[in-house]
Design brief:
The protein has one domain. The protein is elongated, with a radius of gyration of 21 Å. It has seven helices and 14 strands. Strands 2, 3, 5, 6, 10, 11, 13 and 14 form an eight-stranded antiparallel sheet that branches.
């Protein structure tokens, strides 16, 4: 019991400290972000956690002469598992700016013209495990929180400059999804005759985009990269973010369009205190585009879990 009280106290202390320090306030953040900024952006987003009590798990625990039925709570909540940077020239995260050298966005844009939108845009993307992983794993040691399946902080899962298929999507261009242009990240606004508008097709999953809003091109690239790393055996150079859980847990589904297990919290060009799935009206991009053309999100992923008390039997949800 003392362990649980300590863990909850640790979380509340961190959140309170981050809230009062205001080192990463909601609003525009000038210049590069430090690792501490990234951590604070996650632990201060209390609304992003969305903790809920789901039900009860039943376990069989046997000794030499008898067996007993044990129970534990089944809980669920989001965990900030990955940091995704999507940019034309350089990531905003100062600790990782040298990890993805010579972003290919410079092929189509020059420093002298980076304040002008073009019809064709390229975004480099970094997908790195969240530096706050150790904090949420500490919470996961209690009965009331889950642990991430990926427990190594700041591990690069995808650096687009090392993936030739991110720059030249030749392989994925022959996929049925690319040929038929589906699925799409949509606006959600259906119009007669014109049908449903969209930000961009998901395939081919590469850095190229043609939306007139730079922020939407960056979001589409971030979504594509997240979709890649949360799956196995994709035609890209990456490290899958699909670890295993120690306690009995139900991992999130891979990132998908419209899926609710994965949500993006914007960290740059400013920090937001909520998360979302990509899509919606193009007005979402209003005010988000900055001359640096560099964007960043925390990817929150939904976990459900039970504290292990023996051999798993079943669960009952409320």
């Amino acid at each position: 019991m003392l362990k649980y009280v300590f863990v909850i106290f640790l979380y509340l202390s961190i959140v309170s400290s981050a809230t009062h320090a205001q080192s990463v306030p909601t609003g525009e953040k000038e210049g590069n972000l430090s690792t501490l900024d990234i951590i604070e952006s996650a632990i201060s987003c209390v609304d992003c956690l969305e903790w809920e009590l789901l039900g009860i798990c039943f376990w069989l625990r046997c000794s030499l002469f008898s067996c007993d039925i044990e129970t534990s709570w089944r809980v669920g909540h989001y965990i900030p598992e990955l940091v995704i940077a999507s940019y034309t020239f350089q990531s905003e995260w100062d600790a990782t700016t040298d990890w993805n050298n010579n972003p290919s966005g410079a092929i189509t844009r020059s420093e002298s013209s980076k304040d002008q939108d073009t019809n064709l845009d390229f975004k480099s993307v970094d997908v790195i495990s969240h530096p706050a992983t150790w904090i949420f794993d500490a919470l996961g040691s209690s009965e009331f929180f889950c642990e991430s399946a990926n427990d190594i902080p700041m591990l690069p899962h995808f650096l687009s400059s090392f993936d030739p298929n991110w720059n030249d999507p030749g392989i994925e261009q022959i996929f049925p999804q690319s040929i038929f242009g589906t699925p799409k990240i949509t606006t959600g606004n259906w119009l007669p005759i014109l049908g449903d508008g969209y930000w961009a097709p998901l395939y081919p999953r590469c850095g190229w985009g043609a939306h007139p809003y730079d922020a939407i091109n960056a979001a589409v690239a971030a979504h594509r990269a997240a979709e890649i790393v949360t799956r196995d055996l994709q035609p890209h150079v990456y490290l899958p973010a699909n670890g295993s859980c120690e306690n009995r847990c139900w991992r999130p589904d891979p990132v998908s369009i419209g899926g609710n297990d994965n949500r993006f919290q914007q960290v740059a060009p400013w920090v937001e205190n909520s998360h979302m799935t990509f899509g919606g009206p193009a007005s979402w991009a209003n005010g988000r585009r900055k001359n640096r053309e560099s964007y960043m999100w925390n990817l929150w992923r939904y976990y459900a879990c039970c504290e292990r008390e023996g051999a798993y039997i079943t669960k009952v949800d409320f």
